[in-house]
């Protein structure tokens, strides 16, 4: 009897020790998991930021030319087209003029791109989880429409978080060496706008931006991923090798996605830029070189801006600057997507936007 009691005690002691060891292991894993999750988040944000900075710097001259064409007064034309405009800037302002506002642009686009890509991944995970629960199919994948929704969500979050920087960047990009009032930099511009026009001015044009970002960013992600999935699964042109696409093919997917997205959303981008100039007392002189009427820059809201633009300049004014923007968007979006995936590969992050 005594011997059996001892055996039972030994067995109970061993079980207790094993159980404690298992609990300790689980506890250790539980501590490490948040750290690994935090590191993965940082890598994702870093990859998105690098993608945004590289892609925008590559097309900075075209970005400035687009904005100048969008906001110049129709009664005092200084820039007659992309090539002429770039030559004019080179002649009057030099190389620095072509990249004017790029520092501010990168200061805005780096966090914007980081938040956008990260938000898309999280939104995709959430939408896919709800979709699988609704359909009861644990193997279901995102449809193009669901990807559009995830992309739109990511675009709204990223744009709203960095909109004041976009507003200031637009003004820094538009001003020239002959501007009657010079913003000396990002901080000076932010402080000046806040002091002279109030905090609401930093979000002027936000509504058309929200409306425009839905088709723009949504289509970018939806078209890019859908094209990649189609090329990998069906491999119609023999471009996929071992379920992977080459850099040139991925760049082409990004170019198609960017072209479709910006064409749909471009009129709203024009209205947003014009509304951002409202309240800037020297805006008329900046965009017209001293001529023209400031009245064309006075809008009471998005609808009023649309109505006045079409009435005074015609429907084509909603697509002013589309040519340099198209030339800019094709490489910019393509470079952003591919750079993002390549940086994440280098950093060893397994989850990518198409997974």
Total strands: 2
Q: Which structural class do you get from the secondary structure elements?
A: mainly alpha
How large is the radius of gyration? 26 Å
Kindly report the spatial arrangement of strands forming the biggest sheet.
1-2
Order of helices and strands: HHHHHHHEEHHHH
Distance between the ends: 62 Å
Main location: mitochondrion
Pfam families: Mito_carr (PF00153)
Subcellular location: Mitochondrion inner membrane
Family: Belongs to the mitochondrial carrier (TC 2.A.29) family.
Write up this protein:
- The chain is mainly α.
- The protein has one domain: Mitochondrial carrier fold (Alpha/alpha barrel).
- It contains eleven helices and two strands.
- The chain has helices at 2-58, 60-71, 82-98, 102-135, 144-174, 186-197, 206-233, 247-277, 283-288, 302-313, 322-347; strands spanning 240-241, 244-245.
- It has a two-stranded antiparallel ribbon with strand order 1-2.
- β1 (240-241) and β2 form a beta hairpin.
- The longest helix is centred in the first third of the chain and has 57 residues, at 2-58.
- The radius of gyration is 26 Å and the shape is globular.
- Mean pLDDT is 81; it is low at 24-36 and 290-296.
